[in-house]
Design goal:
142 residues; alpha+beta; Nucleotidyltransferase, domain 5; 39% helix; Transposase_11; Transposase IS4-like domain-containing protein
Length: 142
């Protein structure tokens, strides 16, 4: 259960590029805090994309990850904070890219709800949905 959003289920932690295309997805239970996934998510990202230097992250990922990523990986992690007293969705620099990517993923029927039994299966469906999106961009007539 995610107490902040009051929803059951899972959280999808995404890393996308500047165009919103999926680089890494890590699925956890709803009760896992965002800060708890930082080292795992950034470790996967460092193994797959060692040339990265600058990352923008949501305010939920703030904390020790900024100094950890700078010391261990040599990356600059910039936290995009929300506006104090904000109600509803307000466009913030770079944050909308991930929100748009999540919307693209939920256009796939299997990702609209939690149909899968294991988090690894949900991750696989996220990658398949991303592949489908990239193939559509290559040949829009298909």
């Amino acid at each position: 259960m995610d107490a902040g959003k009051k929803t059951n289920g899972r959280k999808r932690h995404l890393v996308v590029d500047a165009l919103g295309l999926l680089l890494v997805v890590y699925v956890t239970g709803g009760g896992v805090q965002d800060r708890g996934c930082d080292p795992i998510l950034l470790g996967i990202l460092a193994n797959r994309y060692p040339r990265l230097k600058h990352i923008w992250a949501d305010g939920g990922y703030s904390g020790g990850v900024v100094t950890w990523a700078e010391k261990v990986l040599g990356w600059v992690v910039e936290i995009v904070h929300g506006i104090s007293g904000q109600r509803g969705f307000v466009v913030r620099p770079r944050r909308w890219v991930v929100e748009r990517s999540l919307a693209w993923l939920t256009r796939c029927r299997r990702l609209t709800r939690d149909f899968e039994g294991r988090p690894e299966t949900t991750e696989a469906w996220c990658y398949l949905a991303s592949i489908r999106l990239m193939l559509r961009r290559l040949d829009p007539a298909a």
